[in-house]
Design brief:
Number of helices: 10
Order of helices and strands: HHHHEHEHEHEHEHEEHEEEE
CATH topology: Rossmann fold
Structural class: alpha/beta
CATH architecture: 3-Layer(aba) Sandwich
Distance between the termini: 32 Å
CATH superfamily: Vaccinia Virus protein VP39
Number of strands: 11
Helix content: 25-40%
Shape: globular
Number of domains: 1
Strand content: 15-25%
CATH class: Alpha Beta
Protein backbone atom coordinates (compact mmCIF):
# COMPACT_ATOMS: atom_id res chain seq x y z
CA UNK A 1 0.00 0.00 0.00
CA UNK A 2 1.20 3.52 -0.76
CA UNK A 3 -0.10 5.25 2.36
CA UNK A 4 2.27 5.20 5.32
CA UNK A 5 -0.19 3.60 7.72
CA UNK A 6 2.51 3.08 10.38
CA UNK A 7 3.35 6.79 10.67
CA UNK A 8 -0.33 7.78 10.67
CA UNK A 9 -1.29 5.24 13.30
CA UNK A 10 1.77 5.88 15.45
CA UNK A 11 0.97 9.60 15.56
CA UNK A 12 -2.59 8.76 16.61
CA UNK A 13 -1.49 6.38 19.36
CA UNK A 14 1.15 8.81 20.59
CA UNK A 15 -1.58 11.43 20.92
CA UNK A 16 -3.73 9.03 22.97
CA UNK A 17 -1.04 8.34 25.56
CA UNK A 18 -1.62 11.31 27.94
CA UNK A 19 -5.36 10.61 27.93
CA UNK A 20 -5.01 6.87 28.46
CA UNK A 21 -2.36 7.35 31.16
CA UNK A 22 -4.91 9.43 33.08
CA UNK A 23 -7.99 7.31 32.35
CA UNK A 24 -6.72 3.71 32.44
CA UNK A 25 -6.80 3.46 36.23
CA UNK A 26 -3.08 2.75 36.48
CA UNK A 27 -3.03 3.84 40.13
CA UNK A 28 -4.88 0.62 40.98
CA UNK A 29 -1.77 -1.33 40.00
CA UNK A 30 0.47 0.91 42.10
CA UNK A 31 -1.84 0.72 45.12
CA UNK A 32 -2.50 -3.04 45.03
CA UNK A 33 0.30 -5.48 44.20
CA UNK A 34 -2.28 -8.18 43.44
CA UNK A 35 -4.34 -6.10 40.99
CA UNK A 36 -4.76 -7.73 37.57
CA UNK A 37 -6.04 -6.19 34.36
CA UNK A 38 -9.64 -6.89 33.44
CA UNK A 39 -8.56 -8.13 30.00
CA UNK A 40 -6.26 -10.84 31.35
CA UNK A 41 -8.58 -11.64 34.25
CA UNK A 42 -11.37 -12.50 31.79
CA UNK A 43 -9.19 -15.22 30.27
CA UNK A 44 -7.45 -16.58 33.38
CA UNK A 45 -9.18 -20.00 33.17
CA UNK A 46 -8.00 -20.32 29.55
CA UNK A 47 -4.54 -18.83 30.08
CA UNK A 48 -3.57 -21.25 32.83
CA UNK A 49 -0.31 -21.15 34.76
CA UNK A 50 2.29 -18.93 33.10
CA UNK A 51 4.79 -18.84 35.96
CA UNK A 52 8.36 -19.25 34.77
CA UNK A 53 7.49 -18.79 31.10
CA UNK A 54 9.31 -16.43 28.76
CA UNK A 55 6.39 -14.32 27.50
CA UNK A 56 6.14 -11.64 24.84
CA UNK A 57 3.26 -9.18 24.77
CA UNK A 58 2.89 -7.73 21.27
CA UNK A 59 1.38 -4.22 20.92
CA UNK A 60 1.45 -3.73 24.68
CA UNK A 61 0.57 0.02 24.77
CA UNK A 62 0.73 1.30 28.39
CA UNK A 63 1.48 -2.14 29.79
CA UNK A 64 -1.30 -3.07 32.28
CA UNK A 65 -1.75 -6.48 30.64
CA UNK A 66 2.03 -6.86 30.40
CA UNK A 67 2.40 -6.09 34.10
CA UNK A 68 -0.39 -8.55 34.86
CA UNK A 69 1.47 -11.36 33.07
CA UNK A 70 4.52 -10.51 35.15
CA UNK A 71 2.42 -10.62 38.31
CA UNK A 72 1.25 -14.07 37.27
CA UNK A 73 4.89 -15.19 37.27
CA UNK A 74 6.00 -14.89 33.65
CA UNK A 75 9.27 -13.30 32.53
CA UNK A 76 7.75 -10.69 30.27
CA UNK A 77 8.85 -8.54 27.36
CA UNK A 78 6.47 -5.92 26.02
CA UNK A 79 6.75 -4.57 22.48
CA UNK A 80 5.06 -1.50 21.03
CA UNK A 81 5.72 1.11 18.33
CA UNK A 82 4.84 4.14 20.50
CA UNK A 83 7.75 5.60 22.47
CA UNK A 84 5.47 7.72 24.73
CA UNK A 85 3.37 4.65 25.55
CA UNK A 86 6.46 2.66 26.48
CA UNK A 87 7.66 5.49 28.73
CA UNK A 88 4.41 5.19 30.70
CA UNK A 89 4.69 1.39 30.73
CA UNK A 90 8.26 1.51 32.06
CA UNK A 91 7.26 3.96 34.81
CA UNK A 92 4.36 1.71 35.80
CA UNK A 93 6.55 -1.40 35.98
CA UNK A 94 9.21 0.45 37.96
CA UNK A 95 6.69 1.87 40.43
CA UNK A 96 5.23 -1.61 40.92
CA UNK A 97 8.62 -3.29 41.37
CA UNK A 98 8.08 -5.52 38.35
CA UNK A 99 10.87 -6.77 36.10
CA UNK A 100 9.49 -6.13 32.62
CA UNK A 101 11.57 -5.43 29.53
CA UNK A 102 10.07 -3.05 26.98
CA UNK A 103 11.18 -2.81 23.35
CA UNK A 104 10.16 -0.15 20.84
CA UNK A 105 9.39 -1.69 17.46
CA UNK A 106 6.63 -2.26 14.94
CA UNK A 107 5.19 -5.79 15.05
CA UNK A 108 6.56 -6.94 11.71
CA UNK A 109 10.06 -5.93 12.89
CA UNK A 110 9.78 -7.81 16.18
CA UNK A 111 12.07 -10.74 15.30
CA UNK A 112 14.95 -8.43 14.44
CA UNK A 113 14.22 -6.00 17.29
CA UNK A 114 14.36 -8.87 19.78
CA UNK A 115 17.60 -10.28 18.31
CA UNK A 116 15.97 -13.56 17.37
CA UNK A 117 14.87 -14.41 20.92
CA UNK A 118 12.07 -16.95 21.05
CA UNK A 119 9.36 -17.27 23.64
CA UNK A 120 7.19 -19.85 25.40
CA UNK A 121 4.17 -17.55 25.11
CA UNK A 122 3.24 -14.82 22.66
CA UNK A 123 0.28 -12.85 24.00
CA UNK A 124 -1.84 -10.36 22.04
CA UNK A 125 -4.80 -8.50 23.51
CA UNK A 126 -7.89 -6.79 22.23
CA UNK A 127 -7.65 -4.11 19.58
CA UNK A 128 -4.28 -5.09 18.12
CA UNK A 129 -4.71 -6.96 14.85
CA UNK A 130 -6.79 -4.19 13.28
CA UNK A 131 -3.65 -2.03 12.94
CA UNK A 132 -1.82 -4.59 10.78
CA UNK A 133 -2.47 -4.84 7.02
CA UNK A 134 -1.40 -8.47 6.48
CA UNK A 135 -2.61 -11.21 8.80
CA UNK A 136 -0.37 -13.71 6.96
CA UNK A 137 2.71 -11.64 7.76
CA UNK A 138 1.60 -11.29 11.38
CA UNK A 139 1.15 -15.06 11.78
CA UNK A 140 4.56 -15.73 10.23
CA UNK A 141 6.11 -13.23 12.65
CA UNK A 142 4.42 -14.89 15.63
CA UNK A 143 5.63 -18.31 14.50
CA UNK A 144 9.22 -17.03 14.27
CA UNK A 145 8.93 -15.59 17.79
CA UNK A 146 7.76 -18.85 19.38
CA UNK A 147 9.91 -21.70 20.62
CA UNK A 148 8.90 -25.18 19.41
CA UNK A 149 5.95 -26.09 21.60
CA UNK A 150 5.39 -22.41 22.45
CA UNK A 151 1.87 -21.01 22.55
CA UNK A 152 0.09 -18.11 20.91
CA UNK A 153 -2.65 -16.66 23.13
CA UNK A 154 -4.92 -14.15 21.42
CA UNK A 155 -8.06 -12.42 22.59
CA UNK A 156 -9.34 -10.02 19.98
CA UNK A 157 -12.42 -8.15 18.84
CA UNK A 158 -14.41 -10.24 16.40
CA UNK A 159 -14.26 -9.13 12.74
CA UNK A 160 -18.07 -9.00 12.77
CA UNK A 161 -17.89 -6.33 15.46
CA UNK A 162 -15.32 -4.34 13.46
CA UNK A 163 -17.59 -4.52 10.40
CA UNK A 164 -20.51 -2.85 12.19
CA UNK A 165 -21.20 0.83 11.81
CA UNK A 166 -21.19 3.05 14.90
CA UNK A 167 -24.15 2.59 17.29
CA UNK A 168 -27.41 3.85 15.78
CA UNK A 169 -30.32 5.55 17.59
CA UNK A 170 -32.66 2.81 16.31
CA UNK A 171 -30.30 0.15 17.75
CA UNK A 172 -30.12 -1.75 14.47
CA UNK A 173 -26.90 -3.68 13.78
CA UNK A 174 -25.77 -2.58 10.34
CA UNK A 175 -22.73 -3.85 8.43
CA UNK A 176 -20.86 -0.85 7.06
CA UNK A 177 -17.13 -1.68 6.99
CA UNK A 178 -15.18 -4.54 5.36
CA UNK A 179 -15.24 -7.92 7.04
CA UNK A 180 -12.39 -9.27 4.92
CA UNK A 181 -8.85 -7.94 4.69
CA UNK A 182 -8.36 -5.19 2.12
CA UNK A 183 -5.07 -3.80 0.86
CA UNK A 184 -5.99 -0.16 1.41
CA UNK A 185 -7.60 -0.54 4.84
CA UNK A 186 -10.24 1.84 6.17
CA UNK A 187 -9.46 5.48 6.80
CA UNK A 188 -11.00 7.02 9.94
CA UNK A 189 -10.99 10.54 11.38
CA UNK A 190 -12.03 10.39 15.05
CA UNK A 191 -11.43 13.25 17.46
CA UNK A 192 -11.98 11.05 20.53
CA UNK A 193 -10.39 7.87 21.75
CA UNK A 194 -12.32 5.04 23.43
CA UNK A 195 -12.19 6.46 26.98
CA UNK A 196 -14.08 9.54 28.14
CA UNK A 197 -12.03 12.74 27.89
CA UNK A 198 -12.18 16.45 27.28
CA UNK A 199 -10.58 18.03 24.24
CA UNK A 200 -9.70 16.38 20.95
CA UNK A 201 -6.87 14.15 19.80
CA UNK A 202 -4.07 16.09 18.13
CA UNK A 203 -3.70 13.30 15.53
CA UNK A 204 -7.21 12.00 14.85
CA UNK A 205 -6.55 10.06 11.64
CA UNK A 206 -6.10 6.26 11.61
CA UNK A 207 -5.98 3.50 9.03
CA UNK A 208 -7.28 0.14 10.23
CA UNK A 209 -7.59 -3.31 8.67
CA UNK A 210 -10.13 -6.02 9.33
CA UNK A 211 -9.33 -9.72 8.96
CA UNK A 212 -12.03 -12.38 8.64
CA UNK A 213 -12.01 -15.38 10.96
CA UNK A 214 -11.20 -17.69 8.05
CA UNK A 215 -8.27 -15.49 7.06
CA UNK A 216 -6.93 -15.49 10.62
CA UNK A 217 -7.24 -19.24 11.08
CA UNK A 218 -5.71 -19.99 7.68
CA UNK A 219 -2.77 -17.67 8.36
CA UNK A 220 -2.08 -19.32 11.71
CA UNK A 221 -2.20 -22.82 10.22
CA UNK A 222 -0.02 -21.83 7.26
CA UNK A 223 2.57 -20.42 9.67
CA UNK A 224 3.10 -23.84 11.25
CA UNK A 225 0.90 -23.37 14.29
CA UNK A 226 -1.62 -25.94 15.49
CA UNK A 227 -4.95 -24.57 16.65
CA UNK A 228 -5.82 -25.94 20.10
CA UNK A 229 -8.66 -23.66 21.24
CA UNK A 230 -11.07 -21.18 19.72
CA UNK A 231 -13.96 -19.63 21.66
CA UNK A 232 -16.26 -16.80 20.63
CA UNK A 233 -17.72 -14.43 23.24
CA UNK A 234 -20.77 -12.19 23.29
CA UNK A 235 -19.03 -9.43 25.24
CA UNK A 236 -16.33 -6.81 24.66
CA UNK A 237 -14.42 -4.75 27.26
CA UNK A 238 -15.52 -1.33 26.00
CA UNK A 239 -18.95 0.20 25.38
CA UNK A 240 -19.30 -0.77 21.73
CA UNK A 241 -23.10 -0.74 21.48
CA UNK A 242 -24.33 2.57 22.89
CA UNK A 243 -27.97 2.44 23.94
CA UNK A 244 -28.27 -1.10 22.55
CA UNK A 245 -25.75 -2.45 25.08
CA UNK A 246 -25.61 -3.33 28.74
CA UNK A 247 -22.71 -4.00 31.11
CA UNK A 248 -22.55 -7.58 32.37
CA UNK A 249 -21.43 -9.15 35.63
CA UNK A 250 -17.80 -9.29 34.43
CA UNK A 251 -17.74 -5.60 33.63
CA UNK A 252 -17.87 -6.14 29.86
CA UNK A 253 -20.49 -4.94 27.39
CA UNK A 254 -22.93 -6.98 25.35
CA UNK A 255 -26.15 -6.41 23.45
CA UNK A 256 -29.09 -5.77 25.78
CA UNK A 257 -31.57 -7.59 23.52
CA UNK A 258 -30.73 -11.04 22.12
CA UNK A 259 -26.96 -10.91 22.66
CA UNK A 260 -26.71 -14.24 20.84
CA UNK A 261 -26.97 -12.27 17.59
CA UNK A 262 -23.34 -11.18 17.65
CA UNK A 263 -19.93 -12.64 18.47
CA UNK A 264 -18.15 -9.57 19.87
CA UNK A 265 -14.75 -11.06 20.74
CA UNK A 266 -12.92 -14.38 20.60
CA UNK A 267 -10.08 -16.18 22.36
CA UNK A 268 -7.70 -18.25 20.25
CA UNK A 269 -4.81 -20.48 21.25
CA UNK A 270 -2.32 -22.20 18.95
CA UNK A 271 0.91 -24.19 19.48
CA UNK A 272 4.11 -23.91 17.45
CA UNK A 273 4.82 -27.30 15.92
Amino acid sequence: MTTDYVAINRANWDSRVPIHAERYGLEKYRADSAWLSEIVRFDLPRLGDVSGLDALHLQCHLGPDTLTLARLGARVTGLDFSAPALAVARDLARDCGAQVRYVEAEVYDAVEALDGQRFDLVYTGIGALCWLPSIERWATTVSRLLKPGGRLFLREAHPMLWALCDPRPDELLVLDYPYFETEEGTDFFELKTYVQHDGDLSSPRTISFNHGIGEILTAILNAGLRLVAFEEHRSVPWDAFGAAGVRDEQGEYRLRERPERLAATYTLQAIKE
